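Example 217.
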Amino acid sequence: MFIVAMSTALFSFGQFTLPPLPYGYDALEPYFDKQTMEIHHDKHHDAYVKNLNKEVSANIALTGKSIEEICKNISKYNVATRNNGGGHYNHSMFWTILAPKSTELKGVLLDDINKTYGSFDNFKNQFSDTAKSRFGSGWAWLIVGEDGQLKITSTANQDNPLMDIAKVKGTPILCLDVWEHAYYLKYQNKRVDYIGAFWSIVNWSEVSNRYAAAKGK
Ligand code: MN
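Predicted structure in complex with manganese (II) ion:
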């Protein structure tokens, strides 16, 4: 019995693992509520990881690949890999660019946002509009495009701008999940209110670090 239980437990480990939330489930209250964070991380993100691992065990070409490599070559893989691989990458990033107390944006990224969008408020308005107008499920992104410029874009479902099938490609530095599962318990149909709340909990120091890393490539 013990051996069977052990091997079952070992078998459940796959190439990809659910990263723990970097803060408590209730840490983003009152903006993102505790119950939504629990379900979003422990159920939705966990399912993407489990289903991605199923694809890995069925396709030797995925073995040993990082999630970034898989996304960048997503046209080579099946739809389940695209949906669950994207789901894993997107949510792993999303948790890290949020923080219980929004940090202040300053430095090079603020300067470049001001240069590109005229002002920080203009940038926030454009990003919010993009998130608001994504029809159905998807994500809004701020990326460093292949030309090195900041760009706001959105993707459907669990696609992301790393993917070779993306219309606008680049390295994501900020993202917002606009699937209904991300906000419906607290905000119901009011996606605009959810987007407004998001700005109070952005981890700008993490976004700035991602910007520096993307520019350094
Ligand atoms: Mn989600």
